[in-house]
């Protein structure tokens, strides 16, 4: 018996190969205990705007945001949109990772964004894993690639350690994060290359507010013979306060002073929103002109602006 709700979905790589440009969106599960209709309404509006796929983020440890896998499944089965599930390894043992990946496999979720995972707010960024956990995202990519080859973990006391344990191969399409503004640039390129060599097939950048870091990053990768698709991520900022807050929170995200100045001078919320929309659309056009295979929009809570941007790009 087959159930189309669990049938394997189209992969991001397949979409990128068949479309001259893509427009995708990234949503955040609601805080635990919050009502769920808002997120369903958000997905419906994004579908109506014409997104090619919707990514569902994974809350950092301690953030108390569950629901990534169920929402990714609902996006594809109930809303008919290709979904991408964020998958972090920071808080899980290798055995827990394999079990969680099998949950995705059984649901037919084929698109995984393999991440180490951010620390909870207030904790230092330096990460020292406990035993039997991955230190870096490329190690998670390697584990997923092993499953795609049908290689599974041994179970102590049950499996012969002298023999490789094999089973049904999974068919995950693996994406990873790219950090064009990592300093120094060559180190950021090296980190990304390691993920690609481990088995990743494409990248999605962190939030960009200028096209120059993206151009430099892609050019540096090309010099190394790496020409994998890299989707630039953008976010619409509609207030100077939000811009300053992001500046303080994200060390590797630079927001132009000119944008903050325009937002500060805006005489109303509507005017500030127009400033943010125009700046983001101009950025998207420059990124596409530079050869970006599509635009990935961090929606946050401003679904209306995101849908307007999607329509403009369409």
How would you describe the overall organization of this protein?
- There is one protein chain.
- The protein contains 11 helices and 10 strands.
- The protein has 314 residues and is an alpha/beta fold.
- It has one domain: Alpha-Beta Barrel (TIM Barrel), CATH 3.20.20.220.
- The strands form 2 sheets. An 8-stranded parallel barrel has the order 1-2-3-4-7-8-9-10, surrounded by 8 helices. A two-stranded antiparallel sheet has the order 5-6.
- Strand 8, helix 7 (212-223) and strand 9 (230-234) form a beta-alpha-beta unit.
- The protein is globular, with a radius of gyration of 20 Å.
- The model has no long low-confidence stretch (mean pLDDT 91).
Relevant terms:
314 residues; TIM Barrel; eight-stranded parallel barrel; 11 helices; alpha/beta; single chain; two-stranded antiparallel sheet
